[in-house]
Amino acid sequence: MDLFVAIFTGTVIAATPLIFAALGELVVEKSGVLNLGIEGMMLVGAAFAFWAVVAGLPMPLAILAGALAGAAASLLFGVLALTFLTNQYAAGLALAIFGSGVSAFLGRNFGSEPIDGLKPLAIPLLSDIPVLGPLLFRYDPLVYLAILSFVAIAWFLSRTKGGLILRTIGESPEIAHAIGYPVVKIRYWAVLFGGLMAGLGGAYLSVAYTPLWVENMTAGKGWIALALVVFATWRAYRVLLGAWLFGGMTILQLQGQALGLAVPSELLSALPYLATIVVLVIISQNRQMLAEHFPASLAKPFRPTV
Predict the structure, then answer these.
(1) Looking at the domain that runs over 2-293, which CATH code has it been given?
(2) What is the DSSP-derived secondary structure letter of residue 174?
(3) pLDDT (tens digit, 9 = 90+) per residue, 159-195?
């Protein structure tokens, strides 16, 4: 039972940065924009959040700093892709490289000392319930925020007028523009939100998941978040399930190494990435499912006409 609790709670915690980043990218792609720079935005968010804690700011402000840094990085992408209509693939890759460089520059003086990271909540009575207590009520606030973000985004995309407008722009920006919606402005807001969520995911890595600065600490999680959106076929609930799946693979490889399984550690470390490849191959075989939910204008530039 102790092993089960450890795997379950570890899975939820490991999935949290993926949930933030993938939900943000889901909103971006629903608007018809493809931002490949999630890795860079997460690294910028992680670096600024860690810097804020080292500078003595309260933890909530440090997390906010990381989120805003991710949004600021996404604004750079927005200017390139939405205003100057550069290739979205190239702009996103440039942002990923830029974010890696900025985070390395900021982190050069952080040292290797751990910080006093974000603490789990101690919910009276509930956290003391046998089994259910540690399974459900002993996480830090950002874990619960990730779940609330999923509920809010799923509701927004499927149940609100704003979500309908966003999806319409992702399907046909020309029609949305013709009936009076400011396509570029709405896409900018979507891109900023995606950056905010990616920065939040990065901040979680540096101040909660691993309260210690390590260069390139995202270790490909931004790319996994991108793959999650495709795995989810652009549906919010599948993003959540996919994040838990890949979080579980991460924890299983750690548990496997801890138990001393007779499997090369390199292979165990590659499990989350191998799972990403396998899932994407399986999903790509069902072209009808992809076509039903794929935003028709994804990555296509749009220039409004008068």
Answers:
(1) 1.10.3470
(2) H
(3) 999 999 999 999 999 999 999 999 999 999 999 999 9
